Amino acid sequence: MRSLLLLSFVAAVVLSSCLASDLNVGRVYNARIVFRKKANYHAIPLKKRVKEVFYADPHQQILRGIIAKDLDHSESNATITAGGVGFSFANIRLKSARGHGLNYQIEMFV
């Protein structure tokens, strides 16, 4: 009984992490936010929306954490294509599902 409960809990955690479309990289605790942007792009029928969000710190501070949260909980995804944690810049690629828009809140921490 106990092993079945543990197995179902692990399966739920793995499934929720696989289906999540949010991007959480690095540590954001005790970090200062330096960039916040809401990326909201409307849907185009039968097309995938692909947008790039770029940030470069003017003071060359190293990024400690990046969060890209999907506010619509859709099937879109966010990936880091350049820089990121450990660099002073980051390029995030947002890609929607076909026929859907993008609605992300992007935050970067130093």
TrEMBL record:
Keywords for the protein's UniProt record, in alphabetical order: Signal
PROSITE patterns documented for this protein: PROKAR_LIPOPROTEIN
Listed Pfam families: MBF2
Signal peptide: 1-20
Domain of life: Eukaryota
Record's keyword annotation contains Signal: yes
Protein name stated in the entry: Uncharacterized protein LOC112053416
Underlying gene: LOC112053416
